[in-house]
Q: What sequence folds into this?
């Protein structure tokens, strides 16, 4: 697959995912690709992190992280791996409410404790997964969690 066609396919899939999220909750979507082990080398890991940005409280959350190992350094193999990863993310979005639990998290940052309590909705297999999405690489000590509640649907 030539680079132009590949880039068009990735962009199309990212746009489809962004539209699903925007229609669901009004958030923006950001895609971050990571290539571990100095891509493209055999044994490389390709990782896609999909984040949402909530405009109401100006916070970025992890939506899903998809990782795939590739043992081939051919550009075409890596491209097909990336397409498979982004397709898995789309399938996750379509099926997540059927296969995961929905949670409401009421929270605040320690530095904005005097502001109104923020309410965010997450989907995950466990509370630990939900908190990982909330913290999103930030220090958990920077957050105040008032309540985590499992809900029927978010």
A:
């Amino acid at each position: 697959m030539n680079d132009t066609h590949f880039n068009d396919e990735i962009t199309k899939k990212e746009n489809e995912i962004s539209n699903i999220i925007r229609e669901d909750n009004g958030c923006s979507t950001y895609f971050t690709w990571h290539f571990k082990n100095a891509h493209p080398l055999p044994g490389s890991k390709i990782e896609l992190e999909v984040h949402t940005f909530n405009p109401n409280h100006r916070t970025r959350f992890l939506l899903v992280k998809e990782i795939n190992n590739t043992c081939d350094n051919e550009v075409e193999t890596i491209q097909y791996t990336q397409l498979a990863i982004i397709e898995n993310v789309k399938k996750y979005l379509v099926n997540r409410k059927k296969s995961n639990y929905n949670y409401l998290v009421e929270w605040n940052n320690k530095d904005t404790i005097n502001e109104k309590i923020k309410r965010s909705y997450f989907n995950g297999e466990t509370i630990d997964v939900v908190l990982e999405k909330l913290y999103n690489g930030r220090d958990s000590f920077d957050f105040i969690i008032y309540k985590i509640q499992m809900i029927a649907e978010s």
About this structure: The longest strand covers residues 59-70.
